[in-house]
């Protein structure tokens, strides 16, 4: 289960990287991705 969760988080971070240009032009998207990153860190602990 833990490995599956890690894989899902990894895949979503790759997707975020691909859409970096879109995030740069969309402040609300950038805020959302920051929140997701903090949530992922909490799960990692």
Describe the structure.
The protein has 45 residues and is mainly α. It contains three helices and no strands. It is flat and about 35 Å long.
Overview features:
mainly alpha; 45 residues
| H-E string | HHH
Q: What would the principal axes of the Cα set say about the shape?
A: flat
How is the main sheet built? none
> What is the count of β-strands?
0
Helix content: over 70%
Indicate the topology.
Layout: H1 2-18, H2 20-24, H3 27-44
Summary, kept brief:
The protein is mainly alpha-helical and 45 residues long. The chain has 3 helices and no strands. Residues 23-45 are annotated as: Disordered.
């Amino acid at each position: 289960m833990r490995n599956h969760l890690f894989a899902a988080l990894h895949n979503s971070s790759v997707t975020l990287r691909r859409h970096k240009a879109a995030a740069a032009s969309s402040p609300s998207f950038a805020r959302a991705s920051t929140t997701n990153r903090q949530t992922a860190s909490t799960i990692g602990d």
